[in-house]
Specification:
Layout (H helix, E strand, L loop, with lengths): L8 E6 L6 H15 L3 E6 L11 E4 L10 H17 L4 E4 L6 H10 L5 E5 L13 H8 L3 E4 L2 H11 L4 E3 L23 E5 L9 H10 L8 E5 L5 H10 L6 E5 L5 H5 L4 E3 L8 H8 L4 E4 L5 H4 L5 E4 L4 H13 L1 H14 L5 H14 L4
Parallel strand pairs: 1-2, 1-4, 2-3, 4-5, 5-6, 6-7, 8-9, 9-10, 11-12, 12-13
């Protein structure tokens, strides 16, 4: 394939387009690049489409059968390969998790030759994106284009693997869509704080959040904890709330496609992840004018919370988290001060600032 002087057809490859912040960010990216005039091809591996996107959708999940055996996977592989060539794709932005070394070898050997590929890294947990052992990852991605969310992620990859082609482009937010008052949710009866994310083990640490909430003053103050998201830990977390005798104060809302009214009307958002990338939970909370309390996990909270818009506590220090929750719940003037500064604090991540960075980066890929 002969590469054009500038890219025109961009393929954004994702596992799915529903369920979490990474998917919301990918969906927003399709809109940002589409508005720049690129032809956008959104390719999903599974048949899960929940967020608004721009461009043309190619849903590989439609070809997935119940067994998902090797022949079915090869069939989808072939469909995708043909699509890349038929549509004359110039750049592939690969958002997949990449844990399997053999699979990555086959994809790079038989699928991607002739295309500019950018491997997206969306979490500080590098094991999601670089297969073990490290020497294999070094061989597979030694000359690859990588795009990460923070400088800290870039430095971590450089130190561990020695890779050099790493671009930092943060998640963006469209602040223009938050210039309104979001009505108080009709199903909410009392003041509440909010947490959001997939209910999966070892990442968002909702179990530790529930335990910290139970030890705080908030249940006694009549302040509930709302949790938005779905996942395999739901029944376990519900049981934990029962055991701690606070089941009536923890409300599991499941997946909420348009969560803004819940975010905007919370006293504050709380995040205590084991690791992050550049959390949309914080970005969208601040966009809604809602302060944030977060633990200083790698990476994201430190880049977003600057002292004017929320409270950053030491990583995995749940007593400090409890104290911060008590303080902010009782201190309305501080909440209001944080609220007033929240949108201003993230203006550099607005799409008007991040979109030109993407245009420059994609064009620069063709100047190598």
């Amino acid at each position: 394939q002969t590469l054009k002087s500038k890219p025109q057809n961009i393929c954004i490859l994702v596992e799915s387009l529903a369920g979490g912040g990474a998917e919301r960010s990918a969906a927003l990216l399709t809109q940002m690049l589409f508005d720049l005039g690129f032809e956008i091809h959104l390719v999903t591996i599974t048949d899960k489409i929940g967020y608004k996107f721009s461009g043309r959708l190619y849903n590989l999940g439609k070809y997935k059968n119940a067994t998902n055996g090797i022949f079915n996977k090869l069939k989808r592989f072939q469909h995708f390969k043909e699509y890349l060539h038929e549509q004359k794709i110039d750049v592939v932005l690969d958002f997949r998790m990449r844990r399997n070394a053999l699979k990555e070898f086959l994809i790079q050997r038989y699928l991607y030759p002739g295309f500019k590929v950018v491997f997206m890294v969306r979490s500080a947990n590098l094991g999601y994106y670089f297969p073990k052992p490290d020497f294999v990852a070094k061989r597979l991605f030694n000359n690859a284009e990588l795009c990460v969310l923070t400088e800290a992620m870039k430095q971590s990859i450089e130190q561990r693997f020695g890779f050099e082609k790493i671009m930092v482009l943060p998640n963006a937010v469209d602040l223009s869509t938050y210039q309104q008052d979001f009505a108080f949710p009709k199903d909410v009866l009392r003041p509440y704080i909010l947490a959001s994310g997939r209910l999966q083990k070892g990442v968002k640490q909702f179990d530790k959040l529930i335990e910290t909430y139970a030890k705080s003053e908030l249940p006694k103050l009549g302040i509930d904890l709302y949790i938005l998201g779905q996942g395999e830990m739901l029944s376990e977390l519900q049981q934990l709330a029962e055991d701690l005798k606070i089941a009536d104060k923890i409300i599991f809302k499941g997946f909420v496609k348009h969560p803004e009214k819940y975010v905007a009307n919370a006293l504050f958002t709380v995040l205590c992840s084991a690791f992050e990338g550049f959390p949309r939970v914080i970005l969208e909370s601040l966009a809604c004018g809602t302060p944030v309390i977060a633990t200083d996990c790698p990476t994201g909270p430190r880049e977003l919370l600057d002292g004017t818009n929320g409270i950053l506590v030491p990583h995995q220090d749940f007593d400090a988290l409890r104290q911060a929750m008590n303080k902010l719940a009782l201190d309305e003037p501080t909440r209001n001060r944080f609220k007033a500064a929240s949108q201003k604090s993230i203006r550099k991540f607005d799409i008007t600032q991040v979109t030109p960075q993407w245009q420059s980066y994609l064009n620069a890929l063709y100047d190598d």
